[in-house]
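User: Some background: our group keeps a shared notebook of sequences we're curious about, and every so often someone picks one and asks for a predicted structure to add to the entry. Today it's my turn. The entry only has the sequence so far, pasted here. Could you supply the structure so I can complete it?
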Amino acid sequence: MAAPKKGRSASAQSRPGRSLALILIAIAALTGGMFISGNTTPRLGIDLAGGTSITLEAQNEPGQPNAINKTNMNTAVDIMNRRVNGLGVSEAEVQTQGDKNIIVNIPKGTNSKQARAQVGTTAKLYFRPVLTYAASGAATSPSPSPSASSSASGKATGTATEKATDKSTSSASATPSATATSQGRAVTDALKADSSPSASNSASTKASPTPSASSSAAKAAADLQKAYDKLDCTVPAQRAKAGDGVDAKDPTVACGQDSKTKQWEKYILGPAEVAGTDIKKAGAVYDTTNAQGWKVTMDFTSGGSKKFSAITAKLSQSQPPQNQFAIVLDGAVVSAPSVTQTLSGSAEITGGFDQTEAQDLANMLKYGALPLTFHEASVTTVTAALGGEQLHAGLIAGAIGLALVIIYLVIYYRGLSLVAIASLMVSAILTYVLMALLGPAIGFALNLPAVCGAIVAIGITADSFIVFFERIRDEIREGRTLRPAVERAWPRARRTILVSDFVSFLAAAVLFIVTVGKVQGFAFTLGLTTLLDVVVVFLFTKPLMTILARKKFFASGHSWSGLDPKRLGAQPPLRRTRRPSAPVDTKEA
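Assistant: Of course. Here's the predicted structure to add to the notebook entry:
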């Protein structure tokens, strides 16, 4: 077993060029990708590049005068931070200010419009049964397909169908007012009889309503019909106020837009049957089967699946348009598919989304709705003057530290310092290229703490070289030549380097997990450079040292190689010598 192992070791030692070629190809590929993508510089954080500062003011919820409290504010900050900050390295800052304000700082280079939508959207999602709908702002009968591309799906029980396209199912009329009136009577009668598809309402129909309850229901239905008649969804101000302040348990009016025709439509919707809190997970998926573009898929919790199954079972027995349910996000109808059979398990939203819109919606549904409603109190631009000065000072400090390290290496290690400097350059190139690529990939932003982490990494990388070089010198002091000294020193140095880098990476990971904000940038950079140190030492430093050990300058122990046996105090190896045997005295024998 010893001979094959020796052969493999000799083969590995004789081909260090493979490792060097591998890391050089990786550097070339990453650098090429950086230039092709057009992101040739790392994205800077708000302290270095400036950005936008948004002040959000919390609003009291209807019927909840004490909703603005520390718990809800902290929850809102956590949700907003997860929405805009992703992995925690995009440098968007979310923090409370006072009792009812939240400050969001978005660095330059981030899509501020998209980020503002992310933090400002409450993302309250409800599934409501459709009682009636009509085209808004047009003198035609209501469109039979408010969201022709929207659908819902069940895992085992079937799929929801598109809205009916047969116009005979809609109550046609010469004018929209007549249409609204005829539909309004049906809706008013339905509300008075409390015959909406709501599960909670169906349970209460067993008891006879009292006269006062009937009177209240009639008044509520009349008010709802009045709001519906006056609603013009082509007016942005009316769209924003539609259903404002209505509890999820009450019917409401809402606006929606057909994803294909872009026609605005108004709805009367029943009480919410399923809420966004019943969604277990959500994601953006490209629909390749029906060529509908991007869609948002949702999986319900066990309780949400039961609710969804119950409402779709009732809707499937109703006539259009009351066999449809509306997916309502922050008061606006995103889609309203019809139901022909009982569904459960999952649903999907399709509405002509592009990739960004689908991912944003899935992101908001995944991280949950905000516990409070916010409006923008102010939006200001933040300059990077102070951060620029600090960066300048930090770069000067980093340059001085790097220069001192190089001077020390040259004086103490002489020729070996070339290996260390080349390795530092390779590590610096990989760090820069990866930072530039990670900006658009995961939203990484370079801030002052991250710069500090990169400077600290210089010492970590140099420490690995020193461990390896000292192991080689120890072997030479024991009397070995350079080539076997390099190969014997590497296993010992490798263990020490791996343990040291593991401790550094573990500290960076713990720091990244338990902290927020700018400190995460420091931890992320420290962890990244620690991993790169392992890559550089294994794929560049060790193979380069193996190649140089074959060169006469280093192998002969030149005084400027840093490996001179005399300067290192090497002792010649001890060898046993045979003493001449004494002549045998034959007489004594």
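Suggested note for the entry: The mean pLDDT is 76. DSSP finds 18 helices and 13 strands in the chain.
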